Every structure is written in C-alpha cells, then in structure tokens.
C-alpha cells in the first residue's frame, strides 16, 4: 500500500468517525479533527496509525501520561476484586486512600467525589454550612467571593458565577450568593469582603483562563485577608495541582496553605474520575450523614487508583520533572516572544510544565495554530481565541519538549 492510499483510507475512516459523532452526540465541544484510538506515555495514536505528542494531557488529568504501568496494574487488580459498594457499606480501599490523601495535603480529612465540578460544589456547600454553624452568619445570608475569568466546572451553581457568556447564557435563573472580584487585585478583594462572607474561591493559576498567573504575593494577600476576616480560602487545584507546576499544589509557590484544597483531574490518573476536597476536622465536621454524598464517590476502584496516584506524588519524582522540564520549556519558548514579524508570540506564561502562549495580534488564530500543530504531530488546544495552552504529560522527555517547541515555532510561520 502506498503512503498515498494509506492517507486516503485514513481520511475516509477519520471522516466517518467524525460524521458519526456529529450525528449522534451533542455538539457541546468543537474537537480538532483527529480520532484517537491508543495512548502510551506522552503519545497518542489515531485510527490511521499516525502518532501525536499529547500536549493537552486531558487538561492535566493525564499528568502521569497514558496508561502509566503502576496505575494500570493497580486498576486491573482492583477491577477484578471489587468496584462499587456505595457508601451504604464500607469498602477496604477508602480508608487507606483517605489517610494517604489527608497526609499528602497536610489536612485532617477528605471528602471524596468523582468530577471536579462536584468537588467544587462540595467546597461551596461545606463553606456555607460552616458559615451558618460556626461563623454565625444568619441563615441564607452567606456570600462567597469568586474571581473574574474563573473556571470551576459546569453545574448550574458554578456557571451562575462564571463570566464566560458561552458557558452561562440562557441557563438562568442563576444561583445567588456570589460576588466577583478582579483576579490578582488585592484591593478589589478587600472591598468585597463583609461580615457575611464565608469563603473566597480561586484557582491559584487560572487554567481555562489561559494559564494566568497572579502577581507575586497575591495568594499570600488572599490568605491574610481571609485570616483577618474569618473567611475560608478555597483553592481550586483541580488543574494546577498534583505536580503540574513543579509542586504538589500551586499554592506552595507562595507558601500558602488554603483552608480547603479542591482536587480532581490527575487524582484519577487519567483512568477514572476521582475528585475530593481536603480540609480540617473543625470545618468538615459540619457535614453529617445524609447531608451530602454521591453513589460513586469513594468507591473502591476510585480509591485504589487515587491511592496509587497519591503514593506516586508522595515520592516527588513528578514534581521534580515538572520543575526541570518546565524551565527547559520556558527557555526554549522565550525566543518565540517577538512582535512585529507576524510569526511570533506576544507573551508567554510558564509555571512548571504548564504554559499559556499568546499569539501576536495579526497572527493566525489559536484554532488555526492548533490545527497546524496537529498536522505536525502535536496536539494542543486554544483557549480564548488567541492563546495556546501547553500541558504535556509530566512523563515527556527533554527531547520531546524540544520537538514540541520546534513544532510551535514552525506552526506560527506557515500552514
Ligand atoms: C476542569 C476543572 C474543573 C471541573 O472539573 P470537571 O471534572 O470537568 O467537572 C474545575 N476547576 C478547574 C480549575 C478545572 O480546571
């Protein structure tokens, strides 16, 4: 078979898959036209056998890469023993997982859920209840402060405080009780806090916002404002946490410890949805039997996989890789920051193996650059029109980081 006929057959197969998904599945995404069937480490393969470097890593759900042998072994073992009990009964995996995750976070206790949005909802519910029972806020008067440009998930309450019109429009009436302040602006937060404020919810780095890193000292200032006002600091580390930025949690870059860690994505190792909050006993004890829960949250398969993830994180190897390869990524990307040539970046933001690349005005759109990268064997996705987000699995090698940057440089120049 010539390479020509291979690519012809391939195109037809890819087109058929895409037509089928468009015919039978809701159009709530606009994927790149690639149909993947295999993954291993930092690489994925499409139905035609073409390989791509995965530089999105499931929005950081795949920090350990596709099919990490330790995670697969643990999952296979647990799959054949016990997968679901509901929380009506105990299972032998939840205790060890909970203890390991509490120890990793330095908190007393955890509450396991499945998706990120559910963990955020859990943090919001715990905060409101803590406000009424512990802080003494009058019933139904609690407010929670959130950030402009936030992304915390897709539930009705969470989109109620999103400022992304596409995510929010025509889903009202919206859940009240949220106030939005400018991300990174300490004064804006200080002014918004009042005696009925129970929590401040923020991403230590805004992922969907385009890897937006707040000014140095901001997280410490948020911590201080929360301490002074008796307000809970909720860190949504669903995308920024679990080694992505070179630390277990992005808050550690400012030596800040939030009251509640919100975790998801990589907690399930890319195999399974696993999320959780971690906090101290005096906060979590407001949750009583029946007042919150989930059929699947804390199930033995999730707990076994989550426990292996926590063990891997406690060894520090992935954090070290993210730091080391992240500085290489930053160094290699820096020469691409140049304006006025029509083929550069107007700015980059890099923290660990996580980068937001702003395409210079007048250059190709983010979507166009993503498609060009795809043709060069690199998968990444645009956000907000002209930003490309780079978040490869942390198992990527130094050579592969070089390939990735070469592909970006080339894709900025020509189709
Ligand atoms: C992805 C994400 C969520 C939502 O997680 P889901 O598993 O998609 O519900 C929440 N917060 C942040 C910061 C995220 O990146």
Q: What hetero molecules are bound to the protein chains? A: pyridoxal-5'-phosphate
The SSE order reads HEEEHHHEHEHHEHEHEEEHHHEEHEEEH
Kindly estimate the percentage of residues that lie in beta strands according to DSSP.
15-25%
Mass-distribution shape: globular
Unreliable stretches covering 5 or more consecutive residues: 1-9
Q: Into which percent range does the helicity of residues fall?
A: 25-40%
CA radius of gyration: 22 Å
| Through-space gap between termini | 27 Å
Number of helices: 14
Return the average pLDDT rounded to an integer: 96
Annotated CATH homologous superfamily of the largest domain:
Type I PLP-dependent aspartate aminotransferase-like (Major domain)
Structural class: alpha/beta
Could you give a quick summary of the protein structure above?
The protein has 415 residues and is α/β, with parallel strands linked by helices. Helices cover 38% and strands 16% of the residues.
Explain the overall architecture.
With 415 residues, the protein is of the alpha/beta class. The protein folds into two domains: 12-67 and 324-413, Aspartate Aminotransferase, domain 1; 69-317, Aspartate Aminotransferase, domain 2. Helix content is 38%, strand content 16%. The protein has helices at 3-24, 57-60, 69-79, 94-105, 116-135, 156-160, 165-168, 186-192, 218-229, 281-284, 300-314, 317-333, 366-375, 398-413, and strands at 36-40, 43-46, 51-54, 109-113, 143-147, 178-181, 197-202, 232-236, 260-263, 275-279, 345-350, 355-359, 378-379, 381-383, 387-390. The strands form three sheets. The chain has a seven-stranded mixed beta sheet with strand order 4-10-9-8-7-5-6, sandwiched between helices. Strand 14 (381-383) and strand 15 form a beta hairpin. Helix 3 (69-79) packs antiparallel against helix 11 (300-314), helix 4 packs parallel to helix 11 (300-314) and helix 13 crosses helix 14. The longest helix is centred in the N-terminal third of the chain and has 22 residues, at 3-24. The radius of gyration is 22 Å and the shape is globular. The relative contact order is 0.15. The chain binds pyridoxal-5'-phosphate (PLP).
């Amino acid at each position: 078979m010539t390479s020509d006929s291979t690519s012809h057959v391939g195109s037809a197969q890819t087109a058929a898959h895409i037509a089928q998904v468009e015919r039978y599945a809701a159009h709530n995404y606009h994927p790149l036209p690639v149909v993947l069937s295999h993954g291993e480490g930092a690489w994925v393969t499409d139905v035609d056998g073409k390989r791509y470097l995965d530089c999105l890593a499931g929005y950081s759900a795949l920090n350990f890469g596709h099919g990490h042998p330790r995670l697969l072994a643990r999952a296979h073992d647990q799959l054949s023993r016990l997968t679901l009990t509901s929380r009506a009964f105990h299972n032998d995996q939840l205790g060890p997982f909970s203890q390991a995750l509490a120890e990793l976070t330095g908190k007393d206790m955890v509450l396991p859920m499945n998706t990120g949005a559910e963990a955020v909802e859990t943090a919001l519910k715990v905060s409101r209840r803590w406000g009424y029972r512990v802080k003494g806020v009058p019933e139904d008067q609690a407010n929670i402060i959130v950030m402009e440009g936030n992304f915390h998930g897709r539930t009705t309450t969470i989109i109620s405080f999103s400022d992304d019109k596409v995510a929010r429009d025509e889903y009202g009436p919206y859940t009240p009780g949220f106030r939005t302040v400018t991300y990174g602006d300490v004064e804006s937060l200080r002014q918004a806090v009042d005696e009925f404020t129970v929590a401040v919810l923020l991403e230590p780095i805004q992922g969907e916002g385009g890897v937006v890193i707040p000014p140095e000292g901001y997280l410490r200032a948020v911590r201080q404002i929360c301490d002074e006002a008796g307000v809970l600091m909720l860190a949504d580390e669903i995308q920024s946490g679990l080694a992505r930025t070179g630390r277990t949690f992005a808050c550690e870059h400012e030596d800040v410890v939030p009251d509640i860690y919100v975790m998801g994505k990589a907690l399930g190792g890319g195999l399974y949805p696993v999320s959780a909050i971690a906090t101290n006993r005096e906060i979590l004890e407001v949750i009583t039997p029946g007042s919150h829960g989930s059929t699947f949250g804390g199930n033995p398969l999730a707990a076994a996989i989550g426990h292996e993830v926590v063990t891997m994180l406690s060894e520090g190897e992935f954090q070290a890789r993210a730091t080391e390869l992240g500085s290489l990524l930053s160094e290699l990307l820096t020469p691409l920051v140049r304006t006025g040539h029509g083929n550069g970046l107007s700015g980059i933001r890099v923290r660990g193996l996580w980068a937001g690349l702003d395409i210079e005005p007048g250059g190709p759109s983010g979507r166009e650059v993503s498609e060009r990268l795809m043709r060069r064997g690199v998968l990444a996705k645009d956000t907000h029109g002209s930003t490309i987000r780079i978040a490869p699995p942390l198992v990527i090698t130094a050579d592969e980081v070089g390939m990735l940057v070469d592909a970006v440089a080339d894709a900025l120049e020509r189709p």
